[in-house]
Amino acid sequence: MLTLLELHRHCPEVFRHTEVYVDGGFTRGTDILKALALGATAVGIGRPYLYSLAYGQEGVEHLTEILKDELVSAMKLSGITDVDQAHPGMVNTALVEGMLQGEEEHPWIQWRPRARL
Fold first, then answer.
1. Which of 26, 38, 53, 81 is 20 to 30 Å from 71 by CA-CA measure?
2. Mean pLDDT of the chain, nearest integer
3. How many domains is the chain built from?
4. What is the rounded CA–CA span in Å between residue 90 and residue 9?
5. Would you report the helix, strand and coil content of the chain in percent, each value rounded to 5?
């Protein structure tokens, strides 16, 4: 999520010119909706599917149903009927905005590259 917010802050034109795929840490349908609302084209969900493989095809199908149900529920609670209606105004990012880098200089790291001789 932070990466999507950083992209919006520093180079928002990326979302107009290319597709943005995100992967890593997505485990719930609400995570998927948030990423789509923040401009992601698609979300990769690897680890939950890896774990569900322990139960074979039934496990994978069950996980797919859970994620679908969670996504549909989140959309209903948000008042939308299609993922294309998701928009950044749906996501409250106030708690994580302080984690975004504001300028080129790091706020507390003083390290500089050494000059090469």
1. 53
2. 87
3. 1
4. 17
5. 55, 5, 40
Task: Say if CB 43 and CB 31 are below 8 A apart.
Answer: yes
Residue 37 lies in a domain: yes
As a whole number of angstroms, the distance between CA 94 and CA 80 comes to 22
Summarize pLDDT for 7-48 with one digit per residue, the tens. 888 888 999 899 999 998 888 999 999 999 999 999 999 899
pLDDT band at 85 (very low <50, low <70, confident <90, very high): very high
Is residue 109, in this structure, part of any structural domain at all?
Answer: no
**Is residue 38 a contact partner of residue 8, using CB atoms and an 8 Å limit?**
yes
Residue 117 lies in a domain: no
